[in-house]
């Protein structure tokens, strides 16, 4: 769930998370709040809303869902991601889920929309060494892979309306 909201300074922000370090392929990476569908979830939207509440503490009933984004396959984890875009009309009090979230990143919309934050980065992972990838440099963090692809779609959509 890509959630936009006004910061205390009234500037629009987007929430991302830094995942904890663990044995999985997405360890210590930047991503959106979200996760695996549970059998109790009504649908994928419910999954996104539930996971957002669990991971950053934003009540799912308060997120106004704006759009379903393009689903995306992630080969290293063999998952399909079904992202959504939503917004709040207030500054949320976010609390990171201790077991999964190392840090919450609040990215200013103006910073995200600035083309200077788009970079090429050489990275090494468990499954690939010294690969050059397109990425975003947001809040001094490299955001790449599926998250960067979703951010690119969001940026194109926002450029059409601003």
In short:
22% of the residues lie in helices and 35% in strands. The chain is an alpha+beta fold.
Task: Describe the structure in your own words.
It is a single chain. The chain has one domain (2-161): Nucleoside Triphosphate Pyrophosphohydrolase, CATH 3.90.79.10. The longest helix is centred in the last third of the chain and has 17 residues, at 145-161. It starts with a strand and ends with a helix. With 162 residues, it is α+β, with helices and mostly antiparallel strands. A hairpin with a 5-residue loop joins β1 (2-6) and β2 (12-19). The protein is 22% helix and 35% strand. The chain has helices at residues 44-56, 109-113, 145-161, and strands at residues 2-6, 12-19, 30-31, 64-68, 72-74, 79-81, 84-87, 101-108, 118-123, 131-138, 141-144.
Number of strands: 11
CATH class bucket: Alpha Beta
Radius of gyration: 15 Å
Low-confidence spans: none
SSE blueprint:
Blueprint: E1 2-6, E2 12-19, E3 30-31, H1 44-56, E4 64-68, E5 72-74, E6 79-81, E7 84-87, E8 101-108, H2 109-113, E9 118-123, E10 131-138, E11 141-144, H3 145-161
Parallel strand pairs: 1-7
Antiparallel strand pairs: 1-2, 2-3, 2-8, 4-7, 5-6, 9-10, 10-11
């Amino acid at each position: 769930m890509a959630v936009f909201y006004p910061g205390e300074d009234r500037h629009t922000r987007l929430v991302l998370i830094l995942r904890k370090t663990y044995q999985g392929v997405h360890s210590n990476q930047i991503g959106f709040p979200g996760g695996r569908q549970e059998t109790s979830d009504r649908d994928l939207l419910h999954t996104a809303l539930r996971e957002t509440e669990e991971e950053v503490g934003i009540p799912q009933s308060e997120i106004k869902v704006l759009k379903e984004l393009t689903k995306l396959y992630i080969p290293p984890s063999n998952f399909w991601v079904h992202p959504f875009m939503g917004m709040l009309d207030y500054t949320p009090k976010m609390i990171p889920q201790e077991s999964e979230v190392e840090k919450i990143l609040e990215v200013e919309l103006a910073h995200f929309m600035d083309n200077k934050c788009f970079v090429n980065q050489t990275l090494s992972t468990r499954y690939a060494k010294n690969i050059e990838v397109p990425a975003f440099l947001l809040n001094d963090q490299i955001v790449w892979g599926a998250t960067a692809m979703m951010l690119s779609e969001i940026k194109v959509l926002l450029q059409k309306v601003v």
